[in-house]
Amino acid sequence: MMHTHFKNRKRTDSDYDVLIVGAGFSGLYLLHRLRGSGFKVRIVDRASDVGGTWFWNRYPGARCDVESMQYAYSFSPELEQEWVWSEKYATQPEILRYARHVAERFDLRRDIEFDTTVESAVFDESNHQWRIETSEGRTISANFCVMATGCLSTTNTPHFEGLDSFKGTIYHTGNWPHETVDFSGEKVGVIGTGSSAIQAIPLIAKQAKHLYVFQRTPHYTVPAWNRRIESDPDTKTSGRRAYGYDADLTIEEIKADYAGLRGRARKMFNALAFIPNRKSALEVDDIERQNGYEGFWQRGGVVFLGAYTDIGTSLEANETAAEFVREKIRRTVNDPVVAEALVPTYTIGCKRLAVDTDYYETYNRSNVTLVDVGQSPIQKFTQQGVYALDQEFTLDSLIMATGFDAMTGTLLKIDIRGRSGLTLEDKWIDGPKGYLGLGIAGFPNMFMITGPGSPSVLTNMMQSIEQHVDWIVGCLEYLRNHNISTIEATESAEDDWAAHNDAVADNHMRNSCSSWYVGGNIEGKPRVFMPYVGGFPRYVEKCNEVADQNYLGFTLTT
Ligand code: NAP
Q1: For a Cys staple, 441 with which of 138, 383, 450, 491, CB 3.0–4.6 Å?
Q2: Any ligand 1 atom below 6 A from CB of 402
Q3: Sign of the dihedral defined by the CA atoms of residues 409, 413, 414, 419, in that order
Q4: What pTM was computed for the model?
C-alpha cells in the first residue's frame, strides 16, 4: 500500500506517522483504520501477543461481564457474521482467540512489535515529533502518539509487612501465569473481593484443600446465569435464547440485524443494548418493586442497575435495590454471621457491580473461610502465611486480587514529556486532566483512547473504543487534508470539561464511596472521579460537535 506521509515543510522525516502504544482492542482497531487511510503506523506492546487486558488476566473464571454478542467489534459486518461466540459471557481464552483472529484476519501483526515496553515519550518542539524510547534501548519517532494503553493495565499490589519473606507462591489476578495453575491439595489465600476475586473464588474453592478469603469491603454481585449459546449442529435448532438484553434474542436474530442492536446500544447511557424499566423505584408499591428486581435478577448481569430509573440518582431508590441484593445474600449463605459479613452497606453500583456464578454459594462450602479484615487490616506476612485478626493462617499460595492503578497508572509509568519539558506526572499532580479524555493541553499530537474524562469503563468498552478510534482517525485525516502539523487541547477547553465532569459526578451514586473510579484504592492517589459519568450518548454528541466545528477546543497549527 502507498503511504501518504504527513507533508509539512517544518517536518523532518519521522519513522511513522502514528505510533500506537498497546495492542489490545483499541490499538488493533486503530491500526486497521489508520492503515486503511494510508498512514504509516506501528504498534508496540510489552506483551508477547495481542489482546491487552485479555492477554494478562488469565485467572480461573476470568470472563467478560458484558455479553459476548455486544463485547465484540462492530466495524466489520463480515467479522460480526462469521465469528461465533459459544457462551453468553465469553471466557478469557475465547476473547483472546477472538483478538488473535482479528489480528490475522486484518493482517495486523506485520505492524506490531511485541515484547517492547515504552519507557518514555518526549515531544520535540523543533520538528513536532514524538520521540519514543523503549526498554530495549530503541528510539522511535512519530508525528503522533496514541496511548491505547487500557484503563486497567497496571496491577496494584498493596504494601504488606513481611510479604517478601512469604515462602509460598504469590499470584496476581491481573498478571496470571500462562501455564495452568493447580491448587489441588493447597491452602490458598485470596486478598480482595472485587470482580476478579468474585470470578476466581468459586473455581479455586472447588480445587483447593482450603480457601481463605481476606475481605476488606464486601462487594455487590448479581448472577450471570451464564450458558452456552451456539446453535446445536445435531438438532439444527437455532441459537438458544441467550440474551437477557433486548428481548431475549437468539444469535440468529441478532445477526440478522446486528446493526440494529448496535444502534440501540449507542443510544443507551452505558452503550449496552437492553430494555430498562422506565419507572422510578419510588413510584411503585413494594410488591411491584420486588417483582421488578426479581425480573432483572433472573435476567442476570450488570443491567440489574437498570431495574428502575433512579437507582443511580436517588439514595432512597438505590437503597431499595441494595436491600434486595442484601436479602438474596442472607437467603443464600447458611451461616448468618458469614452472611452478614458479606452484606455491603454502601450504595449499590458505587463500586463496579460484579457478575458471578455461585459466588455467595461458595461460602457454604466447608473448605472456605471468610476472614473479615474490614475492621482490622491484615497485620503482616510471615514465611508460612499471613497474620490477621491476631491469628496466623498458613498458606501454600496467595492470590492478590487487589486490582489496578486504574485509568492513570499505565500512562504515569511512562515518562511522558510535552511542551517545554512538562511531565505528565506534574500535569496530573492533582489528578488527571484532559479534554474529552482524548487530548491533553501541553501534550500536542498525543491522543488517549478511553482516557480519563471519557465514559470508558462505565460503558461497553468495545463501543467506546470504536467511537474514540473513529474520532481520532477522522481528526488525523482532517489534519492531513489541511496540512496542519499540530493539534493540542486548550487549557480552557480542558477546564470547562473538568468542571462539567465534576458537576455530573458530584451527586452521582458512583461517587459515593471509595473505589478505583476515584483512585481510592491507591495510597496517595488524588481523589478525582475519573471516568465521565454523563452517559455515552451525551459524550458522543459533544465529540461530534467538536469535530464538526473544526476541532473547537483544540489549537491547530500549520
Ligand atoms: P478491584 O475491584 O479494585 O478489587 C480489589 C479488591 O482488593 C477489593 O476488594 C479491595 O478492597 C481489595 N484490596 C485492595 N487493597 C487491599 C488491602 N490492602 N487489604 C485488603 N484488601 C485489599 O479489582 P478487580 O477485582 O481486579 O477489578 C477491577 C476492575 O476490573 C473491575 O471493577 C472491572 O471493571 C474489571 N473487571 C471486569 C471483569 C469482568 O468483566 N467480569 C472481571 C474482573 C475485573 P476494598 O474494596 O476495600 O478497596
Answers
A1: 491
A2: yes
A3: positive
A4: 0.96
